[in-house]
Amino acid sequence: MAAKYIERIFTPSGKHFVGDGFLVQNVIPGSQGLSMERMSPFILLDYNEPHYFPPSETPRGVGVHPHRGFETVTIAYKGKVEHHDSHGGGGVIEEGDVQWMTAASGVLHKEFHEKQWSSKGGIFQMVQLWVNLPSKYKMSSPKYQTISGKEMPVYPIGDNVSEVRVIAGEYKSLKGKASTFTPLHLLNARLQTGAGTDFSFPPEFNTALLVLSGSISINGKEKVQANQFALFKNEDEEFEISAMEDSETLILSGEPLREPIAAQGPFVMNTRQELMQAFDDFKKGKFGTLQD
Ligand code: MN
């Protein structure tokens, strides 16, 4: 079978702060022409590469803000994130854990470095991914899924130090715990130098990978380094990655929604009218209340 080839490799062009606690490079939609539609259902990806935050008694982060129409997926690689929301939910996303928040009809939430962690400071590394919801689920009830690192099925590779961990979807028949509204796969590969593995996704799925650390080669050809995002063509199914040095890679593949996107700020809807409604509902306090 023909290998699935890369369409384009994106190299992020700059970082910005989200609040004062997340120093991210925006990968999707990004500044280089990668549209929300092109990677649907993954409509936003912010990557906070390892960054040292000095101790702070006042935790850094993002204050109260709304979301509607999609899901936020927070992957804590290093450091801890504490969150609270207008439905009374809250908790700490520990290192290695994932929080899958379905904002759907609407939540207010805030996201900060966990208090104790903040008081000591340290290296912080995180991914936040936005997964779009199809029209029929955009106004469904908000919910949370906490997926601890321990609950993720692990596919061992070679020396058993290398592995692929399943956050959502499946890998070689191992199924992730996260429930999703549309078919998608979210996998995290840790490979030691020389270790490799292969992936297979339907050609029509939008597929890409983000190298978080180290470097890999794809199909024995293209080299992709830390912070680079490789987008695959919507052709063929299988590709292979191997580690040129110890590396960690996030792999995303999902069935595109093929619905119009009307997005502004924290809201992602299908039409301009729904977007205006979201701003209006937010102003009228329909997302609930949450203290600063
Ligand atoms: Mn948020």
The helix fraction, in percent, is under 10%
CATH architecture: Sandwich
Low-confidence stretches: none
**Order of helices and strands, N to C?**
EEEEEEEEEEHEEEEEEEEEEEEEEH
Overall outline: globular
CATH superfamily, by name, is: Jelly Rolls
Biggest sheet record: 9 strands, antiparallel
Give me the secondary-structure category: mainly beta
Topology:
Layout: E1 6-10, E2 16-18, E3 22-28, E4 42-53, E5 61-67, E6 70-78, E7 81-85, E8 90-93, E9 98-102, E10 107-113, H1 115-120, E11 122-132, E12 143-147, E13 154-157, E14 162-168, E15 170-171, E16 174-175, E17 184-191, E18 196-200, E19 206-218, E20 222-225, E21 229-232, E22 238-254, E23 262-264, E24 267-269, H2 272-283
Antiparallel strand pairs: 1-21, 2-3, 3-4, 4-11, 5-10, 6-9, 6-11, 7-8, 7-10, 9-12, 13-14, 14-17, 15-16, 17-22, 18-22, 19-20, 19-21, 19-22, 23-24
The structure holds manganese (II) ion.
Residues 65, 67, 72, 109, 111 line the site of manganese (II) ion (MN).
